[in-house]
Amino acid sequence: MTQDAVLDIARDAIYTIIITSAPLLLVSLIIGLIVSIFQTVTSIQEQTLTFVPKIIGVFVALIIFGSWMMNDLTGFMTNLWSNFSYYLSLG
């Protein structure tokens, strides 16, 4: 296996990780910003107020985007394993 092939696999893996995790991270970020603005306006400094809505939001996002995330990861792994003989022949 050549260095280029390894770098291609690593690049595809990192890209897949970023794209797959983006919906959950964005939901968590948006909820965090909304709760932070709410806390600033109301002067409430309760720590569970930031934690619980994020968990609920990420759980709902996981329910909504979970099948897409699993299909994306499964597609990446299927592509990786289907080209396994090609990667072996490079070395």
TrEMBL record:
Keywords: Bacterial flagellum, Cell membrane, Cell projection, Cilium, Flagellum, Membrane, Transmembrane, Transmembrane helix
Pfam families to which the protein is assigned, alphabetical: Bac_export_3
Coiled coil: none
Subcellular localization: Cell membrane; Bacterial flagellum basal body
Name of the protein described by the UniProt record: Flagellar biosynthetic protein FliQ
An annotated GO cellular component: bacterial-type flagellum basal body
Record field: transmembrane: 13-39, 51-70
Transmembrane helix keyword on record: yes
